[in-house]
Amino acid sequence: MDPVAKQRWPRSGLETTLMGFGAAPLGNFFSAMSDRDAATLIETAWQAGIRYFDTAPSYGHGLSEARCGQGLRWYPRDQFVLSTKVGRLLTPRKREEIDFTPWVDGLPFEWHFDYSYDGTMRSIDDSLQRMGVEHIDIALIHEVDAYTHGPRQPEIFEAAMSGAAKALLRLRDEGVVKAIGVGVNECDVAQEAIERVDFDCLLLAGRYTLLEQDALDTFLPMCEQREVSVIVGGGYNSGILATGAVPGAKYNYAPASETILERVRRIEQVCREFDVPLKSAALQFVVAHPAIPTIIPGVRSIAQLDENLRTFAADIPSGFWSELRRLELIRPDAPTP
């Protein structure tokens, strides 16, 4: 599978590479990198053929957007797709007064949630200035689910649908952005969003992986029916599908349970039998679904980028997927390459 092959989005006409560039690490997520290393990483991704880059104001309190803009600014604007988020506004503040957790330092801005119409308009303007680009292709309402706000705050979702969504619909109608949607961690929230608003796309962190396929029940069929494109982040379930079932392996940002560890061990056994890297299987499985044109693994180093490209391109025999089905390690209705 060619990681830099282009896939066309049915509603917006955008074309993204199968493997995009998840720019959260450029915001110093859990560990710092230099401006020079960030610039070199974007240049290397470009030379490899990657043409989709995803960032957000919250990543490093504006740092990821600033670095994406610096790295991409002088490339032909019609040759890449750029997405960012709305829902958090940044305000200047003394660095020593800011809690950057989980970012290891960032730009001297404090963020606060704002899903209002006016806040969304300001957020897009701020992002354009931070990145120094003339337009954004994809704007996503960021984190309106219980994963971020807790299960007892449905008013957050309502505010986003009545405020931010209205603003994004206007910006799309005016041609300021080409595609709009939400970026969340939960399928049911994503599904409710497309039931409520005429969105073009969704960014889903995990929830459809080698380990999780409940999205096949209603969510992904609805996306197919409505031609809504699904961007998948977290295809490794935050680590375990990259590391394997090693001690301390992370599943959804927490230590993996014994049940998950055992399931991954069984998948790894099939990988050994067919000489298939676990990471290759994880990446290729996700984008085999017709509603998913791209996956955006976070990239922290050139070595990691090179490994992602190599593993994505690995040849996987059809018998591998048949064996996973036979052992009930993937659902029988899950599309495979």
From TrEMBL:
One of its GO terms (molecular function) is pyridoxal 4-dehydrogenase activity. The keyword Cell inner membrane does not apply. It comes from Paraburkholderia ultramafica. The keyword rRNA-binding does not apply. It comes from the Bacteria. Residues 19-326 form the NADP-dependent oxidoreductase domain. Keywords: Oxidoreductase. Its EC number is 1.1.1.107. This is Pyridoxal 4-dehydrogenase.
